[in-house]
Structures are given as C-alpha cells and as structure tokens.
Specification:
By secondary structure, the protein is mainly beta. It contains two helices and ten strands. An eight-stranded antiparallel β-barrel has the order 1-4-5-6-7-8-9-10. 21% of the residues are buried. The model is unreliable at 1-21 (pLDDT under 50).
Length: 192
C-alpha cells in the first residue's frame, strides 16, 4: 500500500482547487445584439450619432468574477450608418475612415482593472484608418442570463471612451465634425 503524506495530499488538493478557481470562460458577441456607436458634434451646435457594425468580439471572463480579463473586437467601418446616405458616403471617403484603403477597425485590451464588482477600466489599442493608438474605456458589467437556445447563456457589457480622431490621421473638417468623438460599445455575448 502506498502512503501519501497528509501535507502533500493537502497541498495537491489546494493546488487543484486553485487551478479550478483560476478558470475562465470565453464569450463571443452576438452581432445582432451588439453595436459600436460614435457621436460627434456637428457645426459646434448639435450632436450626430452613427453605428459601426461589430463583426466579432471575444471576451474572456474569470469564472469567479464578472469583470473581463481580456477583450477583443473587430468592426466594419464600411458598414457605418448615420441614417443619411450622403453623410455615410463622406464618412467612408478619404475625408474620414477611407474604408476602401482601411476596411477594418479593431480594439484589443491590454489591461483591465476592476473598480468595483460591476465597473472596470479597460486599457487597450484601437486600430482604425491604418493607425493604432492606446485608448482607455470605462466599462460596466450589465448582467447575465439564459438566452433563446437550450442551455444558452448570455452576458452583457457596455464600455465608453472619448477619443481625438486626429490622432488616427482624420483631420478633415473639424468645424463640420468635432475632433472629439464619443464612443460606446454595447456587447451581448454568448458563452462558448
């Protein structure tokens, strides 16, 4: 009969429990229920908003928390919609997003810090218009619950930031559209 010392057995059980507690789950965005919204000031007197479709997004969440440990999103600026065809064409042109040359847009987190049980600060890199620069988003966990399919579980987050579009080389028309742009990501994701 082989005997394992009690201390060694206790340490092995503790290590196994720690490994389970340190697990995480990957969630993938449902593009139909997720969006990226941008808002600019028009002629310094009013706000104009639009939506950029989210092609995909993955959020990794520790099993013992609702605060993500990492996040990544791919967006489609060519599909942007401000409810005005002329404005949308201008935004896709070399004046702004230049989508024929730069069809993709992405965000990748580099550091996420919880500020309480449902709020967090998310640092990361935003790539658009052929350039990548750091941004800091204020995030919030909105909840989780069953989805429409059998056994499906969904989770919701929102994250906001204000950026200066000129950092990404979009310098055209600062009177027509403000340089300061408010961004908001709303993600409804499905457990994988």
């Amino acid at each position: 009969m082989i005997r394992i010392p009690t201390l060694a057995l206790t340490l092995a059980i503790a290590a196994s429990a720690g490994a389970a507690a340190a697990g995480s789950t990957t969630w993938s965005a449902d593009p139909v229920h997720s969006s990226a919204t941008f808002t600019a000031t028009h002629l310094a007197i009013s706000h104009v908003s639009g939506i950029i479709p989210i092609k995909s997004a993955q959020i990794v969440v520790p099993d013992d928390s609702n605060i993500p440990s990492s996040a990544r999103a791919e967006l489609n600026p060519a599909g942007l919609d401000t409810r005005n065809d002329f404005r949308d064409s201008d935004l896709r042109s070399p004046h702004f997003f230049e989508t024929d040359t730069y069809p993709g847009m992405s965000f990748t987190s580099t550091k996420i810090t919880a500020t309480d049980a449902t709020h967090f600060s998310m640092e990361g890199n935003l790539t658009m218009h052929g350039q990548t620069h750091p941004v800091n988003l204020a995030g919030e966990y909105l909840g989780r619950g069953p989805g429409m399919g059998k056994g499906e579980v969904r989770i919701g987050y929102t994250a906001k930031a204000t950026i200066d579009r000129t950092q990404w080389g979009m310098t055209y028309g600062s009177i027509v559209a403000s340089n300061s742009i408010d961004l908001e990501l709303d993600i409804e994701a499905i457990r994988q």
